[in-house]
Amino acid sequence: MDFSSFLTSLGTSFAIFVVLMLMFTWLSRKQGNAVVYYPNRILKGMDPWEGRSGERNPFAWIQEAINSSEQDVVNMSGIDTAVYFVFLGTAVGILVLASLVLLPLLLPVADSDPGETASNGTFNELDRLSMGHVQPGSQRLWAFVFATYWVSLVTYYLLWNAYVHVSDLRAAALMAPIVRPEQFAVIVKDIPTLPQDQTRKEQVDTFFKEIYPDTFYRSMIVTDNKQVNKIWEELEGYRKKLAHAEAVYAKSRSGSSPERTRPTCRTGLLGLLGEKVDAIDHYHGKISELITKLEAEQKVTVREKQQSSALVFFSSRLTAASAAQNLHSRIVDTWNVMEAPEPRQIIWSNLPKSFYERQIQQYVVYVIVFLTIVFYMIPIGFVSAFTTLSNLMKLLPFIKPVVEENSIRTVLEAYLPQLALIIFLALLPKFLLFLSITEGICTESHAIRAASGKYFYFSVFNVFIGVTLGGTLFSTFKTIEKDPNFIVPLLASSLPGNATFFLTYVALKFFVGYGLELSRMIPLIIYHLKRKYVCKTEAELKEAWAPGDLGYGTRIPADMLILTIVLCYSVIAPIIIPFGVIYFALGWLVLRNQALKVLVPSYESYGKFWPHIYTRMMAALILFQLTMFGYFGVKEFYYTPLLIPLPICSLIFAYICKQKFHQFFQNTALEVVRHEVKDLPNMEHIYRSFIPPSLASDKLDDDQFDDAMSQTSRPGSSV
Known about the structure:
719 residues, 3 domains, CSC1/OSCA1-like_7TM
């Protein structure tokens, strides 16, 4: 990529962001768009334009984001969101402190060296500012050694402070004197074989009553709810269709035409085939039929489909926290107890899985993930190699006349490789989430953390390493074939030359990506199309503008990839640091606005994501240190062994942090729940909040259901 292509990429990306920001300013003031740009406030009963009457400043949202406090974020979007902003702030801090030394120190040192550019004459204007421009063995490399130590020390300092701060956030949330149902319950897995003289519920109740006689409340045996869930989902589907049909009929009656047109539907496949019937009568009949079927299946489920796991409830959150940390059996595969998550987080189908089943599935998933990471690098490498214009013209000669046009060539060089990579990576997250759930993880937040971790390592291995090497290996394959030993210096020397790709990749991500995030053009268009052509009821409208959450499973790995790239190139090509600062600072601003006004969390784990984030930040730092060690070796710097202590110090630092902080994020510290809640907890309400909708149908007799769940002669449950 030449300098004009780089400027084209940067300039057009910035122009797109400005246009999208102005579109946001204009569209967010329209009354009909409030549910798209302020859904979080609307759901909390707040005025969408509170504090902005008569506002005409297009940058007012920036001022609001900057002036907001951490407590504002917690109040609007929860602890997990506040922890995410701690990560963004820490990343900005690391890069800003690094830039204060690296930019004024390394840029003049590299530029004034009489060496040759790293990319053989392409992009000379910026290659001169990289470490690749410094001659091998030069004494100027001492400045780069100092810079490597400086980046490492800054990262240690800020990560330590961040860990302390997040621990305080989590502690403050957990010790709050409000009733949270999950703080009074535990999940019990691997219940032993049922004795002949006891029911499953008697077995669980007897076991926990003997250990916690004063605070044990009751148990809920988990059952296999596949069939009842299927019936309930079908019933809910017909209820939505009935509401839609009735709304259509009501609208036809209120129109100018005096005729009343009753909607019709077909009874065959997907409503496209079969006999045409009156929709309202048909749906009423289906609902009545399914209600009867659901009630019968509920009774069968709560009595006969019991599994070897349960939820156990205590009247004290201190007891629940203690029970989740205690060893309840001398054998590892029985009576395993863990903290209960929020009811909406539980992956019920994974609770009955046995200890050994979970272990085997976990190892199988690890093997699949390893193979995916390794072999996915092959198509990534080909995408990286083939999307360069020179290689595309060799493979597809007929495009040469088009590509030779300067304007078209400039645009393609600026965007083609980056867009191809982004689209390619978008196919992966759902597959990794499926694998994480297959491991046997029983909470949504844990499954997303696991998928996020897999996606991060995949991104680093295939994007950072794959892209760095892909184009170089493709163009020098014959040389490597003749001299395999040439691959080591080739890999190291390819780093500075690929810095330009990552500069444009980062710029594209923060300008276009955050511009689309802020403007919400796609959700806005989808909402208005659905409102005009699809939605007929208030429930359908609300579903159309439902904003969703931050999407940690993909957002955090994407941010971590950017941080890894910027850290690894921070000393080799320091000019990338300002781009990293803009990425995380702009992300902080845009997502602050979204957290306060738009996004609605789908769960709350009270900061359990932080150890996951911290571990990946340490992995990025160690990768940076190893990269610098290897590159100094290629530069034939005699004192390269001076960098050996850095990865060792990082491992020691990570070990100390894990020993000091990590356990609190695995279990609730008893000191933060030793004080009882302000109001006496309604244990029956807490208990019923864990009953899934498929077993809490309005048509089911509550007394009968409660009897089925509580009598020891009828083991009960929920899945």
